[in-house]
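User: Can you fold this complex?
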Amino acid sequence: MDSPATYLHWGFILISVPNFLVIVAMLVLFAIALIAPFPEHDEGDDVSKR
Amino acid sequence: MSASDSRPTSWTLRVRNAVDRHLPMDHLLPDRQPYYVGSWVYVFGVVTIAALVWVIVSGVVLSFFGPQWWHSSSVGRFFNSLHFWSVQLFFIFMVLHLWGQYFMAGWRDGRAATWMIGVVIFGISIVTGFTGYLSQQNFDSQFIATQGKDAMNASGIGAFFNVLNFGQMYGLHVMLLPIGVTFLVVVHIVMVRARGVVKPIDPEGRANS
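Assistant: Here's the predicted assembly.
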């Protein structure tokens, strides 16, 4: 924690590894939220049904 | 004169009627949501609120005991970490909520004010986070203050927002800014409740009516 972070450098992009990992994790989480099935409600409850 | 055939003279009655009209209890505390709300994307907003609750609770504890406690005792360091990591989750899920609302164009059908209040909450949260980093009372906060002062002075607000003044930064961080964020979050939620969640965009690109 007390040592400086490693940086990734591609052209004009300069980002620390921890920040890069957080952004990647957010993108993955967003993709999962779009794809993962949402739990259905109880029978007789038309909340999540067409 | 009856209240039904003319505007009531009592302002409390007028306010009550307006609240009944625009925010009935079945909107404020709904037990059903439309089918399209059945997606994990809609969970990001409420996780952001949950993180904010932890930010506030841990922040209240920190403000009671002060910097020496949160740096030197194990319980203090625990609450310091709890505050820090709940802030990280708050920002992560706020940005995920922002992405979700951006791609579904959450400002449609009279929800522009809800969107703009969210933008303001995001902006105030950044300033709150910045004053929080300045309030740590360690070398990190001193470094950030000395690095940030030139940017503040260059923007012209250095005279009113002095990052080297711990009392000012701490006062803003624990009082004015959290009250602003919390108040606007409550307004944001009430506006979402009043109008409901925005309908999805249909495959042809038109908003469903």
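Helices of chain B lie at 11-22, 25-28, 43-65, 67-72, 74-103, 112-134, 139-155, 166-195. The mean pLDDT of chain B is 91.
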